Amino acid sequence: MISLKEIENLAALSRIALPPEEKEALRKDMDAILGYVEQVQKVSGNGSAEKKAGLLRNVMREDANPHESGIHTEALLSAAPKREGNYIRVKKIL
Question: Which domains does the chain have, with CATH numbers?
Fold first, then answer.
């Protein structure tokens, strides 16, 4: 549980002036946040990625027989709402 003194120290470091009622509200919020972080840490475990390296593997398939370039272009473009040549036409946003 975080103390009001720690909240005051955090406010001072952040250069924020907090009235007493906001300090108490912030203390409760910080307790809730820290409690949530503690739950996440319990679920994620304490091991690092290096320790779990034996569990990690590359799941990408080998591209041994790639398809011919452009054979799916027409099917993909026909599904687009608007098209301009061999491109999908989109609304300009800039």
Answer: 4-44 (1.10.20)
d(CA 57, CA 48): 15
Tokens describing residue 26: 């912030």
Write the pLDDT tens digit of every residue in 54-63.
Answer: 666 777 777 7
The torsion region of residue 80 among left (phi > 0), alpha (psi -120 to 50) and beta comes to beta
Non-local (6+) Cβ contacts of 87 within 8 A are: 77
Rounded to an integer, what distance in angstroms lies between the CA atom of residue 20 and that of residue 7? Answer: 10
The reported pTM is: 0.44
Q: Per DSSP, what are the bridge partners of residue 83? A: 88
9 to 18, 26, 27, 83: CA distances (angstroms): 11, 12, 12, 59
Structure tokens at 23: 């300090």
